């Protein structure tokens, strides 16, 4: 039994060390099969209230990584029908990134666990109702589109921030000279 645990931990450690954007855990509670693909999303590009890109197509095991530019942005998982409210207490929330100039020295990462659509928004003030929203794996055959999600948000009021960072990891920026 001990040798089986050692082999699993060795395999997990070598997988994690091959992908520098993940951090190793002593004993993983759930093993994520990572693909090695990281999708970068920029919050606040060119001083605008946008995520760029705002629509990502990702495989299970891909990492979504948000980079933050000035002003004060966050990312919160929501539902399509309630665009500026958190999905649940366990959905992802990055916390706020108050940036005055340049880019944050930290990023927020989430691993894609399934192929269901993921809807998200910025919880800073009226950023959500102003259109700072995004989607991962939108179902393009559905009437639940990113455009409709943004329309629903216009009437939603200010974004709501959960009480603590959850559902992802805040880590040092693995590429601080990227110029995003």
Automatic annotation (TrEMBL):
Signal peptide span: 1-18
Gene3D superfamilies: Cupredoxins - blue copper proteins (2.60.40.420)
Renumbered residue ranges of the record's region Disordered: 157-180
Keywords: Signal
SUPFAM superfamilies attached to this UniProt entry: Cupredoxins
Record bears the keyword Signal: yes
Protein name per its UniProtKB record: Extracellular serine-rich protein
Lineage per the UniProt record: Eukaryota, Fungi, Dikarya, Ascomycota, Pezizomycotina
